[in-house]
């Protein structure tokens, strides 16, 4: 027997937030790009202790980032910023005092809060309408900005108020498509997994992951449509204006 859809879960990046839309703002303000600024902050911190070249740091950063991606993709775990920095330091055979490492992690993790990217057109209106009929939860991987910072972004967009739950990978302990992310959302909303539909832009994480758990899934393609031709999604949605109708259609 098919259950009634009672709840909707949302991916964040390129589903609600326009990923990298903060970079033009940084450029206009004369600031470094986020990757360059992260490198610069680490370079400054390490050079205060002992010299290191930008070239050596760049190589180590590449190795540490590759290790992060392998852990993320193969084991569904996203290291916190502090953990990523510790892996970087271990690779270099270097250390930083705990207070400096904490400050460095906080500075890197706050960049997208200090200069926020933009929400995708129509996101707040669609979410507000869906919240009148369904319980809503964010289910999002945290790559650099932690869950605490992402809540601040959503507050700034006046969107957080529509959500009854938040499942961020740095807080849950796993990333999508791991079951624990969707279990966390179901617990927070007080529903069963097969009473939820998930919306996101990546077929592997946001469609096949939830479908394997008995959920329905919508591929959202406003900013990223690379998976559109091969997706197994129950529906494809190209813009937020159409999203309430798409969800209502899946709910019957």
Largest sheet: 6 strands, parallel
Q: Which class of the largest domain in CATH terms? A: Alpha Beta
**Using only CA atoms, what is the Rg?**
19 Å
Extract low-pLDDT stretches: none
Bulk shape: elongated
Distance between the termini: 14 Å
**Could you give the count of β-strands?**
6
Number of helices: 12
- Along the chain, the helix and strand elements come as EHHHHHHHEHEHHEHEEH
- By CATH, the topology of the largest domain is Rossmann fold
Helix and strand content put the structural class at alpha/beta
- In terms of DSSP E residues, the strand content is 5-15%
What's the layout of helices and strands?
Elements: E1 7-10, H1 23-28, H2 34-49, H3 54-75, H4 81-92, H5 98-109, H6 111-114, H7 123-130, E2 135-140, H8 147-156, E3 165-168, H9 169-172, H10 179-189, E4 196-200, H11 203-212, E5 216-220, E6 235-237, H12 243-251
Parallel strand pairs: 1-2, 1-4, 2-3, 4-5, 5-6
Helix pairs in contact: 2-3, 2-5, 3-4, 4-5
Short précis:
The chain is α/β, with parallel strands linked by helices and 252 residues long. The protein has helices at residues 23-28, 34-49, 54-75, 81-92, 98-109, 111-114, 123-130, 147-156, 169-172, 179-189, 203-212, 243-251, and strands spanning 7-10, 135-140, 165-168, 196-200, 216-220, 235-237.
Which characteristics define this entry?
six-stranded parallel beta sheet, Rossmann fold, 2 domains, alpha/beta, 252 residues, 6 strands
């Amino acid at each position: 027997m098919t259950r009634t859809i009672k709840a909707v879960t949302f991916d964040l990046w390129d589903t609600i937030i326009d990923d990298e839309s903060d970079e033009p703002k940084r450029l206009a303000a004369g600031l470094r790009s986020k990757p360059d600024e992260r490198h610069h902050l680490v370079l400054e911190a390490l050079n205060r202790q002992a010299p290191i070249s930008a070239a050596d740091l760049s190589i180590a950063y590449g190795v540490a980032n590759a290790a992060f991606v392998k852990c993320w993709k193969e084991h569904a775990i996203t290291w916190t910023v502090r953990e990523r920095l510790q892996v970087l330091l271990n690779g270099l055979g270097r250390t930083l005092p705990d207070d400096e490492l904490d400050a460095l992690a906080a500075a890197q993790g706050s960049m997208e809060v200090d200069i926020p990217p933009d929400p995708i057109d129509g996101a707040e209106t669609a979410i507000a309408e869906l919240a009148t009929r369904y319980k809503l939860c964010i289910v999002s991987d945290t790559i650099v900005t932690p869950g605490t910072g992402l809540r601040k972004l959503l507050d700034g967009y006046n969107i957080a108020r529509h959500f009854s739950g938040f499942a961020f990978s740095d807080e849950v302990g796993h990333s999508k498509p791991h079951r624990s992310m969707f279990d966390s959302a179901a617990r927070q909303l007080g529903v069963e997994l097969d009473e939820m539909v998930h919306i996101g832009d990546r077929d592997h994480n946001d469609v096949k992951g939830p479908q394997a758990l008995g959920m329905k899934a919508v591929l959202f393609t406003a900013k990223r449509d690379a998976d559109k031709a091969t997706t197994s999604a129950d529906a494809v949605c190209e813009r937020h204006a159409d999203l309430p109708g798409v969800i209502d259609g899946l709910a019957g």
